[in-house]
TrEMBL record:
Protein name: MHC class II alpha chain
Principal location: membrane
PANTHER family tied to this protein: HLA CLASS II HISTOCOMPATIBILITY ANTIGEN, DR ALPHA CHAIN, MHC CLASS II-RELATED
GO cellular component: MHC class II protein complex
Cellular localisation: Membrane
Membrane topology category: Single-pass type I membrane protein
Length: 247
């Protein structure tokens, strides 16, 4: 990471633990610890991942451990005080870097391709979760929000922390629990200084499978029946001819 990014972002700590089985084919699991402190909002993050999936993060405001799946919290514990101490050290080091360095603000970058999709296939009137994904942006400062028919939506909205990538960029998910109805239009609005168009809006509306009309059904059934009858008649004719040839 360049010194410019280092000064703006703080320090990023990576710890990778490789666990291999004793089988002939080696299977590796990677546990990643990611923590940073920066002068922007949010000021920092402390998070653990296993094979790229979040296990837990520490809420620096409430000073509590937030497990991605509640089941993890019932079988394991984590020392939140240690995480807060690490963040305090990063803050101290960043303050020293600022005092001793003639730094400039890091360049903001972001990928314009915002993705919106659902977790499950859509059925009108059935609950489903809408997902908005922003990737490859830096620094980890982004605003993501939902609109329904151009009106802001706040109920049923959840999000993730910032997920780091090996290239130094970040990604973030924003979720919305919805009951899709015909004619509804949902918008994920993303704001980041690195976007070529700020904000960037990504639209989504229910796309249902095209159903064949009743008339088309009748035509297809009629064609199938005709082919069936033709096959039966042809079979009878061939049997009769076969008998005559034998005689």
């Amino acid at each position: 990471m360049s010194p410019r990014k280092l000064l703006n972002l703080g320090l990023v700590c990576w710890t990778c633990i490789y666990v291999h089985t004793s089988q002939a084919v080696k299977v590796g699991n990677i546990m990643t610890q990611s923590n940073f402190y920066q002068t922007l909002e949010p000021t920092g993050e402390y998070m653990f991942q296993l094979d790229g999936d979040e296990m837990f993060h520490v809420d620096l405001q409430t000073k509590e451990t937030r497990w991605k799946l509640p089941e993890f919290g019932r079988i394991s514990t984590f020392d939140t005080a240690g995480a807060l101490q690490n963040i305090g050290i990063l803050k101290f080091n960043l303050n020293n870097y600022e005092k001793r360095s003639n730094y400039t603000k890091a360049k903001s970058v972001a990928r314009d391709d915002i993705q919106v999709f659902t977790e499950m296939p859509v059925v009108l009137g059935e609950p489903v979760t809408l997902v908005c994904l922003a990737t490859q942006f830096f620094p980890p400062v982004i605003k993501m929000s939902w609109l329904k028919n151009n009106e802001p939506v706040t109920v049923g909205v959840t999000d993730t922390v910032y997920y780091p990538a090996p290239d130094g960029s970040f990604s973030k998910f924003l979720y919305l629990a919805i009951i899709p109805q015909k004619g509804d239009v949902y918008t994920c609005s993303v704001e980041h200084d690195g976007l070529s168009m700020n904000p960037t809006n990504k639209f989504w509306l229910p796309e249902l499978p095209q159903h064949i009309s009743e008339t088309s059904d009748n035509i297809l059934c009629g064609i199938g029946l005709a082919y069936g009858i033709f096959g039966i008649v042809a079979g009878i004719v061939l049997i009769c001819k076969g008998k005559k040839t034998t005689n």
